[in-house]
Amino acid sequence: MKRSLNKAQMATEYMVIVGLVLVVTIPLFYYAIRESNTNIQINHANDAMSTLAKAADTVYSIGPGTQKYV
Question: Residue 28 and residue 45: Cα distance in Å, rounded?
Fold first, then answer.
């Protein structure tokens, strides 16, 4: 009887520890994923702006009447 009670207590303690670890790690993963998605969107916007700026510079340097599709 005493032995099964001891095993049950250990199992309960393990479940509590695993629960606490999950409570800490899940928000950290959520925050990391959200920040990386934000950084990806910012990088895409910067790439688009750079492409447009280079195209505008090229068209300006070639002269009037120049067209370039971006």
Answer: 26
Q: Give alpha helix (H) positions in 1-70.
A: 2-62
Residue 51 backbone dihedrals phi, psi, to 5 degrees: -65, -45
**Taking the model in full, what pTM does it have?**
0.64
Q: Which residue, chain included where needed, has tokens 């002269």? A: 63
Asked whether the beta carbons of 31 and 38 are under 8 A apart, the reply is no
Give dist(CA 52, CA 70) in Å, integer.
Answer: 7
In tens, the pLDDT along 36-51 reads: 999 999 999 999 999 9
The residue type at 69: Y
